[in-house]
Amino acid sequence: MKTTRQKLTILGATGSIGVSTLDVVGRHPDRYEVVALTGNSRIDALQEQCLRHRPRYAVVGREADATDLARRLRAAGLATEVLAGPQALEFVAALPEVDAVMAAIVGAAGLQPTLAAVRAGKRVLLANKEALVMAGELFMAEVRAHGAVLLPIDSEHNAVFQSLPADYAGDPARAGVSHLLLTASGGPFRAAPLERLRAVTPDEACAHPNWSMGRKISVDSATMMNKGLEVIEAHWLFDVAPDQIQVVIHPQSVIHSLVQYVDGSVLAELGNPDMRTPIAHALAWPERIAAGVAPLDLAAVAQLNFEQPDLERFPCLALAYRALRAGGNAPTVLNAANEIAVAAFLEGGLPFLAIADVIAATLDALPVAAVPDLRAILAADARARAVAQDLVARWPA
Ligand code: NAD
Ligand code: MG
């Protein structure tokens, strides 16, 4: 029997991962207590979540929305304190009474709140891969310095985590690991000819065959930049060299990733593609809890297929390897340029195939340099955004 419940802050509660997290949490009221929920602009959704989970704090993006939400919650008899802005995100990520923080804000906006949780030595459930991509070295140094427990939510990394020895301490040679195999669904355009990709619309790009996700990561899946970001994420999480991380297309998304050992053994984690599995795993680790996920029916799946990724149709994957090998500011630049290009594509201001071109041109424009501290990382991020924005503005329609 549990006597004390784990206290949680959920950053990005109104997003796809946040909603799945609250679904799992809601199944185990004896184990989890929600202390803080954050959402950027979807105030109605955040209000509903507050009514259900009664957090001590709620955080929104704008002051005006905070005033509005506070009034609504008071009218409903809730004592939730509503705060606004980036500082408030850091505040709720580092609250002394909080045990675990779900980092599920999308993009670079999640970096500083996630770092605040790391620096407060929390158990950090990391969905926000962009934070690790843009600041990998610093991020991992802070995890070690503050004794934070970092648990991957990204399904591939969670699968790798589950397939590594329980005492794995970032030394693949010692663990007998030869390489990691990250599976990729290939997204909605896996089999589409290059010519077809020219006219892709935002809604087509967001229609993922296996997973229902936020729009930014859905576009990343369609370009396969998502897998590129995940290669970089795997490098930092597991301390494996770029050459030891391979990508294999697996359209069914049933094998969530694999670890190849030197003796020829390959260990993997399988399941239905439902993010509640890695979320429940990380929430309860090292225990196991029910996640509401249907058991895997292999006979119904019938077939597991694999193929090599086509780097010509998916140049973003090659760009991510290039940035990882270059090191320094290159992954920060890659991530920033990708965020700008994807936002422009979603707004109808950039063709799908130009996303990779904008990222490549931004990497070309900015010399590789060391990023020794957070200031340097934020400066590299801002510079790359400006360069990419300029390229987007001048892109031929
Ligand atoms: P989403 O767009 O559905 O949700 C994003 C959340 O972040 C929302 O709560 C939003 O309010 C908040 N947010 C956005 N911009 C913000 C800002 N400037 N300041 C504060 N909050 C802000 O995204 P998602 O699909 O839930 O993805 C979240 C993260 O998890 C991403 O980094 C994504 O790569 C990662 N991830 C998602 C999935 C998935 O299945 N959805 C799987 C693996 C990893
Ligand atoms: Mg993933």
Name some characteristics of this structure.
binds nicotinamide-adenine-dinucleotide, binds magnesium ion, 397 residues, alpha/beta, Rossmann fold, 47% helix, globular, Rna Polymerase Sigma Factor, Chain: A
Mean pLDDT value: 97
Multimeric organization: single chain
Supply the CATH architecture of the domain at 6-152: 3-Layer(aba) Sandwich
CATH fold assignment of the domain at 6-152: Rossmann fold
- Taking Cα atoms only, what radius of gyration do you get, to the nearest Å? 21 Å
- State the CATH superfamily name of the domain at 6-152: NAD(P)-binding Rossmann-like Domain
| Largest beta-sheet details | 7 strands, parallel
The CA-CA distance between the termini, in Å, is 62 Å
Strand order of the largest sheet: 4-3-2-1-5-6-7
| Overall 3D form | globular
Structure summarized in a few sentences:
The protein has helices at residues 16-26, 43-53, 63-75, 86-93, 111-119, 129-146, 155-163, 172-175, 194-197, 202-205, 215-223, 225-238, 276-284, 298-301, 315-326, 330-346, 354-365, 374-393, and strands spanning 6-11, 32-38, 57-60, 81-84, 100-103, 123-126, 149-152, 177-184, 245-249, 255-261, 266-270. The chain has 397 residues and is of the alpha/beta class. The strands form two sheets. It has a seven-stranded parallel sheet, with helices on both faces.
